[in-house]
## 1
Amino acid sequence: MPHTPENCKEVFAMLSQYLDLELPSDDCQAIEEHLAGCAPCMEFLESLKKTVKLCHECQPSTVPAPLTPEARRELEGAWKKMLERRGG
Ligand SMILES: [Zn+2]
């Protein structure tokens, strides 16, 4: 996967599923390959992991839930800013 802003957006679209381990392994591999060559996406994934972990820690008795729409919007905003910063 070449590292273009378009691909970064595709990766972002799959990331929450990726974190929930819901992606087929082919897609997981594509994401991991992209992340390996794309520092901004890797950084973003690290912050996403922290966010998800925090959510789970807040609700230890519940089954891990997908990101809330609010959290997703926040992450999307952060993602767009990140893409703007790198000039994409
Ligand atoms: Zn990327």
## 2
Amino acid sequence: MSGASGSSVGGGRRVVLIGATGSIARAIAAQLAARGDTLLLVARDTEELARDAADLHHRFAITAHTATLDVEHPETFDGFVRSASETLGSIDGLVFAQGFMASQEDGERDHELAQRTIDVNFTACVRLTLAFAPHLAGAGEGKGKTDRARTPFVCFVSSVAGDRGRASNFIYGSSKAGLNAFAQGLRQSWRGRTSVTVVKPGFTDTAMTWGLPGMFLVASPEAVAGDTLRAIDRGRAVAYTPFFWRWIMLIIRLVPGFLYDRVKL
Ligand SMILES: NC(=O)c1ccc[n+]([C@@H]2O[C@H](COP(=O)([O-])OP(=O)(O)OC[C@H]3O[C@@H](n4cnc5c(N)ncnc54)[C@H](OP(=O)(O)O)[C@@H]3O)[C@@H](O)[C@H]2O)c1
């Protein structure tokens, strides 16, 4: 692992950010860095990571380490996690912001793409979270603001697409639904030890959605990142971003099955 070091190690927390070269992840990294957190940026592109780490160090005088990882290779996870914990010591936060989405038609035609969708969005989150578990800092979850700030956290960037399967996007949606159920159980299991948060963005202006037809109410990665950090700070179980997706998805979830089956969303 390598990194750009500040003269002072950040006054804040030590956070691992998976999928760090993505648009939403970059916005999250900048907002964490602005608080003085020490970061481990993790993604596939070593050169981009080095550029991002140098930029964060330059702008915020924090320490930003980098590690190259392809999350489709679980056989490398144990070694990666060991080396991450050697670099950071105990870890205060894990943010999963990697993601892959092929079109539904491509996924149905090319099953490798369907498999990759599940592996990147779901399997990697499960296996890496379990592998990181022994390395998360051991603070108790308290009720006060100060206690919460000391509580280790895991945050999964999921999607509104996981709330109900849709004909136009159910391979991706099911990978996020699996992630949501995993996070829900993990939150119960780790209560009092680590806070677990799922963030569900709606359409966001990033490489993943570039050129997609039918997008509406499109949010910026910075707005999604701001909502993500607020949700983590408040120890939320689930946060929709922007907020109005909570109500849109509530309506969609309430449509009775016999009607839902007849509409094409
Ligand atoms: N954009 C939206 O409208 C939207 C809406 C709801 C939820 N989300 C979720 O938000 C999260 C962030 O997505 P984004 O919109 O910021 O997309 P993005 O800019 O395309 O970022 C995705 C990131 O995931 C990384 N990644 C993909 N496959 C990987 C692999 N095998 N190993 C390691 N890293 C891998 C990519 O790295 P490479 O550059 O190396 O490919 C990239 O850094 C995702 O979980 C996505 O599902 C997005």
## 3
Amino acid sequence: MNANDTLVEQCVGRLRKLSFAIGAYRPPSEGGAASLLLRVSENCPWNRCSFCEMYKGERFVYRSVAEIITDIDTVAAIRDELASLSRALALDGLVGRSLGAALIKAGPDLAENQSFVTVFSWLAAGGKTAFLQDANSVIMRPAELVVALQHLRATLASLNRVTSYARAKTLAQRQPDQLRQIRAAGLDRLHIGLETGDDELLTLIDKGVTAAEQIEGACKAIAAGFEVSEYWMPDLGGRERWRAHAQNTARVLSAINPHYIRSRPLAPRRGTPLFDEVAQGRLHLSSPHQRLEELALMIDGLEVTSRVCFDHAMNAWVDRHGALLLRQDYEGYQFPQEKPLLLERINEGLAVAETGHVQARRLMAVKSL
Ligand code: SF4
């Protein structure tokens, strides 16, 4: 064994002892493995939405600032270990393929070590973005969130964007000053689950928020300087409420005018109340054409300057050539300029037979569960 092998082995030994909390979920648009995941709280403090299986059966945990700071320091310790080994191996301090190969050769178990893999992938991608988990980071007491963010930004100075999930209800309860302080401390973008702007449907799905609170929370966040990404769920009201769902969602999103509007078509998940409603015939899912009609109504009602996105596999309608009907990239369609184009594409989708849509097969699979 030469001197370098010994250095690598020693480094592997130290890395094995370094771990921090990482949750399961983040939005696809937040960089995949390029984003550092940090858990500032665990699970969902609400946990009642009838369509959501993400944290069912999991108890909400409010993490202390001390625990979060320890985790941030652990990330920094892993980063420093990697940089120092890279320099010792004459790799210029770079974290990349050669360094990874040397470490995995000496410690194959590191490939399964979530803390190591997360920090390594994040640094290999430039160490630019972080996502704070889990479902509602702004539930933290504002002063504590500010301290955690300040420590994050001071310790991991390569970060140029920090984002998180937030509930509109919690944002509506915060004072404008508190939101401004959180923004100034370094939280840049909030991902909010609107789902629908229809009050009746919000009650039925037990979202715990009204349309007026959705508007208030998101508008406060935008006024405080956050970038806001809103998620809505086509077909959430099924055939029973599709029209009110589309119209009121357009109304609420127009009042908010968020930076991003992202479509997440309903896919009932086993173990949720909504799944049982579908299985028992109390909620009837729309066909691919009916979903497109609902989409057309919602899009037509949108008076926004947002980017309207379809960055999820369930937005899988096709055109007459069998190609994806709607772009699925993270930046989507710029409104209002591309609104006519989007409506045109929806019409194109309506010209394709129902059975031709990839979505038809996915819906059939859902219905046969
Ligand atoms: S607030 Fe979000 S994470 Fe929590 S139950 Fe509702 S959809 Fe799920």
## 4
Amino acid sequence: MRGQSRSGLSAWRAAAIGAAFGGAFVRAIGAFAAGPDIVPRVTGAAQPMQDVPAPSPARPITDDVRKMRNYPEQPPVIPHAIEGYQLTLHANRCLECHRRQFTEGSGAPMISVTHFMDRNGQVLADVTPRRYFCTACHVQQTDAKPLVPNHFEDMLAVGKSRR
Ligand code: HEC
Ligand code: HEC
């Protein structure tokens, strides 16, 4: 349990060691910053085991605008709602629109040729089993604020500033 000495040290020795090392540690931390703001949101509560209110879930972006890919092999992100879409061994809601046979009626972009290729590069008549579970690669975006800053640079921009 928290607060108990797990190592079997006597309480006094534990306290003495704790004072020596803990003091140095606290001073080191204190040198960098003070106040609860330094706790990154990913680590949870400032006080361990403290209750924190659950943040409301982020809303998926469903504006139907196809997003630019950040690099050519990126699986495009899903720009529409997928809530309630069944994706099981027996039913694949995604393919009811994105399969080659159905794109004329649905207006959805067809799964590209790589989705028909087995691991030997052989093009099959229908989607390959290794691309069957679409959401293993394709994800929605949400309006959640990023937890950490992102300094991603497009490959077209990389190195340009040095020229
Ligand atoms: C009712 C038809 C329909 C269903 C079902 C559907 N989609 Fe779509 N999807 C579309 C259409 C239409 C677009 C084009 C953009 C838009 O209108 O939202 C699209 C766009 C996409 C794109 C973006 C393609 C690109 O090049 O940017 C991805 C990825 C995608 N869908 C994946 C999925 C996945 C994964 C599922 C299942 C969870 C799914 N879709 C289910 C109709 C559908
Ligand atoms: C193993 C990862 C993976 C899985 C699983 C997968 N995709 Fe993709 N998908 C990709 C990648 C990577 C691309 C972009 C490059 C390419 O076309 O291969 C892509 C591209 C697409 C595109 C854009 C095609 C185009 O020509 O612009 C659509 C639409 C799409 N996928 C739908 C689906 C659907 C629907 C499923 C489920 C049946 C699915 N994908 C399963 C990785 C995946």
